[in-house]
UniProtKB/TrEMBL annotation, chains A, B:
Protein name stated in the entry: Probable phosphoketolase
Domain Xylulose 5-phosphate/Fructose 6-phosphate phosphoketolase C-terminal: 590-790
Origin species: Dyadobacter psychrotolerans
Cofactor: thiamine diphosphate
PANTHER family the record matches: PHOSPHOKETOLASE-RELATED
């Protein structure tokens, strides 16, 4: 199948315009090489000497000239149609290109006024690149106009779509590297076009940059047949336009035509004038240009331009290679800087006018500093959804189902603002958040059939793609451009995006240190269908370790919550959705469990983040014999059941019950802003009494968080990778977080309980055996366990 | 473009064969429904009663009949061509299908003789499914014939290719679910066909099962146009054959033709008789059949077959729905069990003979129990590559470059066995393992061009795809079928496969508990280009948290090593490659660093896993004032530099230097097989002296591992998410693992050092400032730091 032929009679670029655009491109290339190499002599006003070169030259050239080429062409089309467009640089190391271009258009100097539009500014621009204390070799948070860091690869297209949702006037130009295109997340992201509404959303214009090589290997997409590549993209639902070659003048004409064609098609699709019905086949551009284009043809006899040898620094310039100084100078002079910059180092006016101005400059597009556009959500009163808890444990509730009603109301309250969305990998209903479908739908542009549920071309829920990577990437793009959202996932499979979370947390950390970057809305995870509720899915669905992962990131950024019941979950989620610039991890269950706190108590408890549950404790004299602590819904249930056994059989034992909602409270105040002082910690946990801590996740996390505390008598139970297909209670038994084992833990640690304790222990061991037999025979838990109820002391 | 037309004159199935195959399929469907529902009355010899149904019915029906359909057709083709073929079940919950089929063919009873081929056996087969103590709803390690667990989705195709590499006689039939196909890893795995050699590797036959729905959403691939789907797969390099419909008889004929066509093409490609040159376009099958095919058309007036409502249990059978018992019975009787099984419950002989026998049965294929086929690697003597360390620190070395020579030799020594491969995401050369290309190449079947390096149609290195997911999936498939390998990656980006590692570790844990599953070779990670060697890549490339993640898994399975120099790295890697059924994580650097141990000392040190470095210590009287410990190459360098400062300036201070290679040594012996006793730990670390521990990763990991130890005076330095583009030493300073901050740590903790200590501290603080100024000015570290050398005490 042939690529569609572009009408060559349509002369888009006059020869004069070709000349100017090529000059602009040369200027960008010159600035890119300058950034990689030069410490001084930025305009080459004197012959280049080794002293002018940085002592340690690092950076990446290969992708850079192609991205400079794209940038100048996007500038043209923005001006022509007054487009609201910004640029996502997918290839890893496009820093010199984007930094150079946002400098040329003036955005860099607007943000960093010390880097002026003159020779002194050029010198600073060059020096800061890949230099200690300076900026990195990728596009980074420091780069104006960027919402996407090159570094780890694979997320550019998901970010682009996330930015485009609910931004109908926006076109996100997304340059995808052909190396990056081999990653899993990018490979599936092409299908995001099945979710983009042409009227209520913006557009994404992918530009696949086929420069042929990765670090030292060719790329797959550059080495399949032209017809295959065309089929691949048509199969992904795109209309590809090819721009292929290496002659600059020809390529400018081809690229201008392709960009024109693509943008006109986008505008036609959006206006409904394209004449097509059904899901549009959005245009995309495939740019095949040499890696390291316009760089040295060869270095020391080895081919460079057009090969993987141009990936990083093409010419090694140091004292051992004096002849390379001359080659570098020749290369830089090949761009004829004297024809591009005036005597003072400012870009010539006739070139400067090629760039858009003000907010239309891609480096100054407000969407790329999303906090500037961020509005608070309209938050309905979560207390309207309160579970009516008259006595603790007196009523059962399904926590995420209760939350679902609140999320429905939030969705509705913000519907006219188009700034709140729910993301998930087809688990919204499984996680019991289906109430949201009372007020909205799943956004879905592909074919519909009878019996489909809640599908519509426009809706606030994006949960129809089975890819945690897409959910995360879309949500990140949505948040980074100033909106709000929530990602609901099975707890175990959120590990799929460990690395994406890590990169986002790093982005938040760095942007929080940049005064011009405004805070964005927090990334909120709701991890439902958690480790203790996978009894029929089993071992593969059990992994509570995302919390461990999250806590390694900067304390300023991360928050982890384990609400014990529905009212606490409501209060926590209200807080999370109002917060800024955090990653909030909320773990909550969907199965019916006893509810503990009335709404007022829940609010107080969640505000404190940790608390002694007096109603469950009997140490009112303030001198407990043992502290029994818990975090997480299932561990809380079992702990309270254990307490009730202890209070019935060993009433003289003074027990203090502590529940932890906000995990960061356990850390020292020196380590986390939420951390408790040692005084407060000791007043809750005592300095030396035994603490039995029943935890939702891997037990070591609690040890780690409390490492600096004085009380070393801490015994943590949690998930220890045991159990698969079994009953809910048996899973707890296998991991020893169940009530019986907890009581035994207490007895084992308090020899003063003597024979009474020993007797109870034996009874409970018998009970465990009895239960095991019952389960194996009946396939369900014993009724007395299912029906257990807390009786207020 | 049209799907290729299959010649309908080719009558592959006689009407009699259609009848028999359909009967076999009915038997498999019957067994599947029985597994999901029945506790008793397996042959429906009496009318079904509620008592015969499991008290808690869980399981997944939707994908099952389609997979049963595929299985019977693969059986036919195996018999016809005497194929060596096995089955990978990608869709999440295909358990009832595969278990039913391996039972029908006899493989299940061979492995589990208590589940006999009669009514009693059927009852056991039914009861065990999704029942406490039984088997899970996915295909799992317990399932004979499986190397792939349904659960987390997305890895089936990568596993299939991993199994096919170097297995020229094998065809891996890989059923890919259309939900699974939306995940990133699966989406990019289609391109694995650019790496499969038709002569020296086996083949993969993907069967995309388009059953249209996920949990409650349609699937994307089922809702794009037929032409798009065809283009997509042709664009991915496959030749798709479509089998679409719902009438069983027609579908049997279509499927038989498609399978025939595909297998014949595979055999032609492999024999070179296909007439094509260049990269083959391997065949694949797209099976579009209704979800929950042959299940109830509707339940309680709601459509079921062909909708997402059939995903899990179609009919809720319990005391509240008495009429559903009858509907279930009708459904089961629709398969006419009395025509399929004899009076005793054995499958009729005329059906039994449809299945292959012996090792040709997919449930008994030896490749699926890879440990049975595993041979030890020929291991050349790693000592041949020893770095000649005459005095500690007297010579510089690049650890991974030294290892590269050893890996080259291993590759060569096993080349004729075709059982060892190196995997990586285009980082083999960057990680300095390029020596391997002296003896082999990168396997690459796509187009080659001038200036490519080390590409060939056959080679032991698979590092030309930029996807950690593929590397991991391929390697897992390769190991699971009884071979050996190593995965080299940047340390930060191995987090991309956190979740895959987790699933593999779970597989290893469960298979180690199944006596019939043989141990396989360990999964060896070499994490090179680590956190401390990303000074020019910066913040995005810094994440040492994979260790934290790994250590949460079962202690029997995981090992983490931090060799301090090249000789230790050689010794550790030799050990890892000889080991079985572990996940070994080895972190090693590539930059030139001082070498500490001669080979003999390195072997002893690595065998111990931890040791006091007497040559660096001055507490020979056995009474140190402070213990200075380290793990990792860079922390070791800085710690020794700190020790040398202390010994020069405060010679009266008695210092013990400890190096940890095997991180698990720090744990208690009760928690890890490598763990030290408290006695041993205390004898190394003392019971109460201050320990300054300089660690490669996040400091909390050391706190966590040593939590139970008596000595609480432990101060850990490590990576704390600081620093980006800067010099190597400045990065250490920013995270306070540098020599100066370590000395200050010691002084701060030992007030007895008095004014002498205070004076040194002030000097070092001045030095830190001086260094910072130097770096900002010169862009590199001060020469005295670069040139520092350990002087033996």
């Amino acid at each position: 199948m042939e690529a569609e032929i572009i009408d060559n009679d349509l002369e888009i670029l006059s020869p004069e315009m070709v000349r100017k655009m090529n000059a602009y491109w040369r200027a960008a290339n010159y600035l890119s090489v300058g950034q990689i190499y030069l410490y001084d002599n930025p305009l080459l006003k004197e012959p280049l000497k080794l002293d002018h070169v940085k002592p340690l030259v690092v950076g990446h050239w290969g992708t850079t000239p192609g991205q400079n080429f794209i940038y100048v062409h996007l500038n043209r089309i923005i001006k022509k149609y007054d487009l609201d467009m910004f640029y996502i640089s997918g290839p890893g190391h496009g820093g010199p290109a984007i930094v150079g271009n946002v400098y040329l258009e003036g955005s860099w100097s607007d943000i960093y006024p010390n880097v002026t539009q003159d020779e002194a500014g050029l010198k600073k621009l060059f020096k800061q690149f890949s230099f200690p204390g300076g900026i990195s070799s990728h596009v980074a948070p420091t780069t104006p106009g960027s919402i996407h860091e090159g570094g780890e690869l694979g997320y550019s297209l998901s970010h682009a779509f996330g930015a485009a949702f609910d931004n109908p006037g926006l076109i996100v130009a997304c340059v995808v590297g052909d190396g990056e295109a081999e990653t899993g997340p990018l490979a599936t992201a092409w299908h995001s076009n099945k979710f983009l509404n042409p009227v209520t959303d913006g557009a994404v214009l992918p530009i696949l940059h086929l420069n042929g090589y990765k670090i030292s290997n060719p790329t797959i997409l550059a080495r399949i047949e032209h017809e295959e590549l065309d089929q691949f993209y048509r199969g992904c639902g795109w209309t590809p336009y090819f721009v292929e070659g290496d002659d600059p003048e020809t390529m400018h004409i081809l690229m201008a035509e392709a960009v024109e064609k693509a943008v006109v098609e986008i505008l036609e699709i959006q206006s409904g004038s394209s004449g097509t019905t059904g899901r549009p086949r959005w245009p995309m551009i495939i740019l095949r240009s040499p890696k390291g284009w316009t760089g040295p043809k060869e270095v020391d006899g080895v081919p460079n331009e057009g090969t993987f040898n141009s990936h990083q620094v093409p010419i090694l310039v140091d004292a051992d290679h004096p002849q390379h100084v001359q080659q570098l100078e020749n290369w830089m002079r090949s761009y004829k800087p004297e024809e591009l910059f005036d005597e003072n180092g400012a870009l010539l006016a006739e070139l400067k006018e090629l760039a858009p101005t003000g907010d239309r400059r891609m480096g100054s597009n407000p969407h790329t500093n999303g906090g500037m556009l961020l509005h608070n959500l309209h938050m309905p009163d979560f207390r309207n959804h309160a579970v009516d808890v008259v006595v603790p444990g007196g009523i059962m509730g399904q926590d995420t189902m209760v939350l679902g009603n609140f999320i429905r109301d939030i969705t509705k309250a913000n519907q006219s603002e188009h700034n709140f969305r729910v993301f998930g990998p087809d688990e919204t209903i499984s996680n019991l958040l289906g109430a949201v479908f009372e007020v909205t739908n799943r956004q879905w542009e592909a074919r519909q059939e009878t019996n489909d549920q809640f599908l519509a071309p426009r809706g606030e829920v994006l949960d129809s793609m089975l890819s945690e990577h897409q959910c995360q990437g879309w949500l990140e793009g949505y948040l980074l451009t100033g909106r709000h959202g929530i990602f609901n996932s099975y707890e175990a499979f959120i590990r799929i995006v460990d690395s994406m979370f890590s990169q986002h947390a790093k982005w938040l950390k760095v942007t929080s240190e940049l005064p011009w970057r405004r805070d964005i809305a927090s990334l909120n995870y709701l991890l439902a269908s958690h480790v203790w509720q996978q009894d029929h899915n089993g071992f593969t669905h059990q992994d509570p370790g995302f919390m461990d992962h999250v806590i390694n990131k900067k304390a300023d950024i991360v928050r982890v919550y384990l609400p014990p019941d529905a009212n606490c979950l409501l209060s926590i989620m209200d807080h999370c959705l109002r917060s800024r610039h955090y990653v909030n991890v909320v773990v909550a269950g969907k199965h019916a469990l006893p509810q503990w706190l009335d709404m007022q108590s829940a609010i107080i408890h969640c505000t404190e983040g940790i608390g002694i549950w007096q109603w469950a404790s009997n140490d009112q004299d303030g001198k407990p014999d043992v502290v029994m602590a818990c975090a997480g819904d299932t561990p809380t249930l079992e702990l309270l059941a254990a307490v009730s056994i202890l209070r019935e059989h060993l009433p003289e034992l003074k027990i203090r019950v502590v529940n932890v909602v906000d995990l960061m409270k356990l850390q020292s105040e020196s380590e986390h802003p939420h951390g408790m002082s040692d005084l407060d910690y000791d007043s809750i946990f005592t300095k030396n009494k035994h603490i039995i801590f029943n935890f939702h996740g891997y037990p070591w996390l609690i040890h780690r968080l409390t490492y600096r505390r004085a009380n070393r008598n801490l015994h943590v139970r949690g998930y220890k990778e045991e159990g698969t297909i079994t009953t809910p209670f048996d899973l707890r038994v296998q991991n020893e977080i169940d009530r019986f084992n907890l009581v035994i833990d207490v007895i084992d640690r308090l020899p003063e309980l003597g024979s009474k304790g020993a007797y109870l222990k034996q009874q409970l061991k018998d009970k465990l055996i009895e239960h095991k037999i019952y389960v194996n025979q009946h396939g369900k838990d014993m009724p007395e366990i299912l029906n257990w109820k807390w009786i207020a002391g």
